[in-house]
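Moderator note: this is an archived Q&A kept for reference. The question asked for a predicted structure of one protein chain; the sequence and the answer are reproduced below.
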Amino acid sequence: MKVKSVPSRWIYEEGLRLDCGPYMSGAVEARKLLEDISMPTEPLKEITENGLAGIYHAGRIKRLWVDSPKHGYPFLSSTDILQADLSELRNISKISVDENPQLIIQKDWTLITRSGSIGKTAYARAEMNGMACTEDVLRVVPDDQKVLPGYLYTYLSSKFGMPLVTSGTYGAIIQHIEPHHIADIPVPRITSEIETKIHNLIQSAADLRSEANRKRQEAINKVEQELNWNSKELYGLSNIVDSNQLIRRFDGFYHSHSIASARNTLASHPDSILLEKVVKEVFEPNRGARIKVKDLDYGVPFLSSSEVFRLDPTGEYLVSKNMPHFERLLIYENDLLLPRSGQVGGIIGRAVLPLATNYGHAATEHLVRIRCSSREDAWLLWAIFASQPGYYAAIGTAYGTSIPSLDCELLSQLQIPWIQGEFREEIVELVSQKITKLTEAIHKERTAIQMLENHIESLEAA
């Protein structure tokens, strides 16, 4: 339990608020620091487009979903805005957007989650331009004649801006923030030179992430072309199988047309081989209690199965190096990760590679490790499992009806196309560029935030 003593004048200055939020988050200290140091500030609403109108959310909507982007728009949830990969978004109907045009977002805006896990920020990169976004996300539209969008995003993401955003939270069970709660947040103004440097770092990070996703899609397209995969043939409502195929698995999902077609497509390639023949191990770590620590000398960051898909996976806490089976939890550059459990259509079976910033960190036992002999092997396998036939084949191993779970033994028995030569080199190079760009983007964004925080702290020390 956290305990903190605060002066009574803080309570008066906060409008007699008696909830813990603004006092425990550091918001009061951040506001007072900005008041005390010799740095000019402007209220947020003074540097957004059309004042307070430049801070808004779309309001409640009726969501009508469609299968094709031809009839709608890719739709970002409050979780999606934090994801590195936007290829699996659902599409919301044009009818919903026509009824509420405020659903559409534009690049260079700052997006802030406003309910549930509030205060998470994302910078709208080029590939998000023109997408629809949930009403659970605040839009902060910068007036580019008054502030550079990358600088504004950096401040709202920093340890000085974020507590001020979340201090406006209200609600005991389902928490929310509204535009007027953050309209008067003081935004410090630094020199034009530093603000431009910070903006350029954020813009470069956003561009790198969009480029990484283009490389991602190019690699997947090459794999699907090599396999002659045709997703249009997947809509059969029934399938006929030999009785000898029912000896081990009798559930309909495993034998469904799409899953069986995917397995057959992988297996029919001339270079196909059992997965277990080309990797070191396919396993899920031992389950057990997580021993949390606060010092990096005694622990490492712990990543959940959803965290690994984020723009900058950092982990919410550290786990002890003395945990039982600690070594089995660690992830490395030669690992391919598959979320083990969840609802089909969610993250279960979605192939993901750890980034360089996460090597040596611990990750949940809910991530199956396909441990390869080299990182190049892992990159090739990622492209195979990230393709549609690879994904279907992976989730086809799942068992259970309420919360399906992947089967490591069945995964290891999958026939996969172990393609060599020029094709392998092309795939490995594309995936290498993807990983490099995502990692570089993380470093640039961290550098921008650190630059801002260091400048403010240097004025505090002076």
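Archived answer notes: The mean pLDDT is 88.
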